[in-house]
Design a protein that fits this description.
Shape: globular
CATH architecture: Alpha-Beta Complex
Strand content: 35-45%
Helix content: 25-40%
Number of strands: 7
CATH superfamily: Molybdopterin biosynthesis MoaE subunit
Largest sheet: 7 strands, mixed
C-alpha cells in the first residue's frame, strides 16, 4: 500500500489504521519508521515533489520482495510543504517474524533515500529552494549530475 498525502502526515491516524487493517493477519511483527522534519540550517520546513509513475513502480518492486519473505510493506509520503517537527514519511513492515521485519525496514528506508523519485526543497523565509546538497541522483536519470 502506497499513500501520497498533501502536506504533513497524521502519524497516529495512519499507524492506527494500518495496525487495524493487519491486526488479524497473523503477523508477529509490525515495525514502523516515521521520518520527521528536523530544525536545521535555518529552514522553516521542507517541500516535496513526487514523480508518481516511477515511485509506484519502485514501490511495487519492494512489495514483491516483501511478499517473497511472507511480509507486506506500507508507505505514506507527503507532497508539498511540511513544516518543522511534522512527518513527511512513514513506512511499515508486517511480517510473521521480527527479524524479517527489522532487516526489511532497514533495507527499504535506505533504498528509499537513494532511489525514490522524490525531490526535496528547503522552505526558508517563504522561498522554496532546491536542496541539491542533500539530494541523491537517481540511477539513470541524468538529473543532479
Amino acid at each position: 500500500m502506497l499513500e501520497l498525502h498533501d502536506g504533513s502526515l497524521d502519524v497516529s491516524n495512519i499507524l492506527d489504521r494500518w495496525y487495524k487493517q493487519e491486526r488479524k493477519s497473523n503477523y508477529g511483527a509490525f515495525i514502523p519508521f516515521v521520518g520527521t522534519i528536523r530544525d536545521e540550517d535555518g529552514i522553516d520546513g521542507l517541500s516535496f515533489d513526487v514523480y508518481e509513475p516511477i515511485l509506484e513502480s519502485w514501490f511495487k518492486n519492494w512489495q514483491e520482495k516483501a511478499h517473497k519473505k511472507g511480509a507486506i510493506i506500507k508507505m505514506a509520503h507527503s507532497r508539498g510543504d511540511v513544516m518543522l517537527h511534522e512527518s513527511s514519511y512513514i513506512a511499515a513492515v508486517f511480517s510473521p517474524k521480527r527479524r524479517v521485519a527489522l532487516e526489511f525496514i532497514d533495507e527499504f528506508v535506505e533504498d528509499f533515500k537513494a532511489s525514490a523519485p522524490i525531490w526535496k526543497y528547503d522552505l526558508k523565509n517563504t522561498e522554496r529552494i532546491y536542496a541539491k546538497d542533500r539530494s541523491t541522483a537517481i540511477a539513470g536519470s541524468g538529473i543532479l549530475k
